[in-house]
Amino acid sequence: MTEEFYLDWLPSAQRIAAREHRDSTLFARDDIEQAxxxxxxxxxxxxxxxxDPKFVEIYMTRAARGYVRQERVDFMYFAxxxxxxxxxxxxxLETCAWEPLEEVxxxxxxxxxxxxxxxxxxxxxxxxxxxxxxxxxxxEGMDASERKDVSRGVDAICHRLNSGLRLxxxxxxxxxxxxx
Length: 180
Hints:
Layout: H1 3-21, H2 29-42, H3 44-48, H4 53-79, H5 86-95, H6 107-123, H7 125-136, H8 144-162, H9 164-179
Helix pairs in contact: 1-2, 1-4, 2-4, 6-7, 6-8, 7-8
């Protein structure tokens, strides 16, 4: 990597790191920025060949997001948190998301699913409607567009359940309970 490249792209790397950090308590902005520069160094021959500068920023953003995602997953494993997969989410949607409370086999899963589904309903109502139609109403005869919306909706629910957003809320609850 050349000094000129570093100086030209330093503000972008810092901005990307700040944007991807999102006030996380799991990692520091400097760590994200370092991951970006490690990616640049490790893939220098690709960066040199880039003609359009917007792709440099795209690759830097991918490097930052990859680092952040891996740090969150590592923390979840370290903390013993449950990792949701699309198969597990689909099974929970079928068995406990819309069942009467007395019949729910896993109340924690239901609480998590309802919160994630409400977030999906706000951010992607079409996907939420397809997920509800498939799992809440039990309809299986859906067209290709609806099946795609179901798949994307389940993936979005997985992402929500596995993101660091839940971890931040849990650590606040723990801090409050320790104070009392």
